[in-house]
Amino acid sequence: MKEAEGQRLIGGLRRHSRFTHIIIFLLHRTDLRNILLDSLQPNTIQWNHNFITAEPLPSSSYRIHFTNAPTITADILIGADGAWSRIRPLLTPIAPTYSGISFIELVVSDVDNRFPHLGSLVGNGLAFIMSDNKGLIPQRNSNGVIRIYVGLRVPESWLDEHPLPSDPADARQNIISLFPDWDTNVLDLIKQSDDAPITPRKIYAFPPAHSWSTQLKGITLLGDAAHVMSPFAGEGVNLALIDAYELGRELVGAVRNGGLMEQVDGGLRLFEKAMWQRAGEKGEESLNNLNALFAVHAPAEFVEIVKSYGPPPSDDV
User: Fold this and answer.
1) Most buried pick, 29, 34, 190, 214, via CB within 10 A?
2) Secondary-structure percent of the chain, ordered helix, strand, coil, rounded to 5
3) What is the dihedral of CA 288, 291, 309, 105, to 10 degrees?
4) How far is CA 213 from CA 89, 91, 92, 177, 219, in A?
5) Beta strand 219-221 pairing with 77-79
6) Can you list the domains of the chain with their CATH numbers?
7) What is the pLDDT of residue 314?
8) Nearest of 174, 175, 120, 179 to residue 146 by alpha carbon
9) Which residues does the chain have with pLDDT short of 70?
10) Residue 20: what pLDDT?
């Protein structure tokens, strides 16, 4: 990507940056998490329990084991333990697979005071700066932080075979070397990033149509444990939140109707059907966006996807 070309592509994407499909970080997830936690009564959540495994019992309950706390038994077991869920194997042997994309994550703190040109470059939301199967995806977080995801279409073993130098300055230079001839203003996102953390990540996902069936009662999954996908639809947290809401509604309805396990389990199965439907749609969108962003001629196809949502709203909306 030549310098002039980089400026053109950045500008082209930012013209559409006011779409909710692009600006998805209106409230930082840590702030939202704290709001939700503060709404609960003290001790509602029991912290500091390092979960190991859960085993089904003949009584249709579950024995749950921790490394640092006594074993407990529960009638209802909900796996909300992320992409590498330890509860999911009770429902399905299928695990997420490598998406073909690896990230290197960097952070620029206090960006508007220290590097206002980078704050202006990214804007108030999210940008995609892509070409030739790689790119930079800077995202504005709260408290003046910009988080940069350096994305590469590489084999699953690539990060292991090309470890970053331990010295942060050398690591930044190593990353910059992956983008020869790119716009220096863009590469400043890497050059001016903080010393730590610089974090490599492999991106894993389920196929969009992923589901399961089980004879077990009183068990289900939600969020990434159920349907982890690549981040290119920007819907992972949104799906987890609606999963939690819909699951809670089913459980409340079952309790109000008597709370028998047959009623609870029926509600869980209804929840799963709706969850798979919405997760499948967003998983397909995420996969399509991944392939549009990480392509030889990127971001041309992705720009057309953004344009398909219509023109940006006028300033008086």
Assistant:
1) 190
2) 40, 20, 40
3) 110
4) 12, 7, 8, 47, 11
5) parallel
6) 3-30+98-205 (3.50.50.60), 70-95+208-293 (3.50.50.60)
7) 67
8) 120
9) 1-26, 313-317
10) 38
Measured in whole angstroms, the distance separating CA 126 from the mean position of its chain's CA atoms is 14
Nearest to 164 by CA among 174, 153, 154: 174
Residue type, 247: L
Q: Residue type at 89? A: P
Tell me how far apart the 2 most distant CA atoms of the chain are, in Å: 68
Enter the pTM of the model: 0.86
CA distances from 261 to 59, 61, 147, 216, 251 (A): 11, 10, 45, 11, 11
Type of residue found at 277: Q
Q: Which two tokens stand for residue 192?
A: 């001016």
| pLDDT at residue number 26 | 56
Identify each DSSP E strand in 179-264 by its residue range.
199-205, 219-221
CA pair distance 157, 287, nearest whole angstrom:
21
Kindly report, residue by residue over 203-233, the tens digit of the pLDDT: 999 999 999 999 999 999 999 999 999 999 9
Looking at the DSSP bridge assignments, the partners of residue 201 are: 103
Instruction: Compute the residue count for the chain.
Output: 317
- State the distance between the two ends of the chain, measured CA to CA, in whole angstroms: 35
> Among candidates 64, 70, 117, 128, which has minimal Cα distance to 90?
64
188, 215 Cβ separation under 8 angstroms: no
